[in-house]
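Comment thread on ticket #2218

A.B. wrote:
> Attaching the input chain for the structure job we discussed in standup.
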Amino acid sequence: MNPATGPGVASGAPTLDAEALYRELVRGVTGLRQPHTRLVGITSGGAWLAERLHKDLQLEGEPGVISSAMHRDDFARRGLAASAQTRLDFDVNDAHILLLDDVLYTGRTIRAVLNELFDYGRPGAVQLAVLVDRGGRELPVQADFAAARVALPPSRSLALARDAGGRFSFDVESAA
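C.D. wrote:
> Ran it. Output below, let me know if you need it in another format.
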């Protein structure tokens, strides 16, 4: 199996098993990690993934959280989101950072997050792992690991949800 594509390929309005994709993500992240890799989750779905992975992989310290809000190219239209703020409790300089996100779509969030990350220092390496790559890229961004590839029309959105027990699911909705 190609880790860039993962086990799932779907089109239309998919029914995705987020827990199965999470298990695939654990496998992929295990393959990407180096001895001193720092997990950093993009708010909010990526932060949930980083938090759970950090615990499941029994890593020391806390995972980082990073927000794209201050560097979005649509900031004037969207404004400042009420999501979590960036928290990186480690020296970013020369660090090997594994960014985690729930859904990769246009690449604009990743661009904004990289700009935010470089506000904190110059990492030695940055890799990206996602649960779902839905295509539709507007920027030259690709994940080093995607648990699944899903084709969705632009009129649909895909978002990770988390219940009170920490279990993941996906919401597929009409885009606003």
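A.B. wrote:
> Thanks. Noting for the ticket: The chain has one domain: 16-174.
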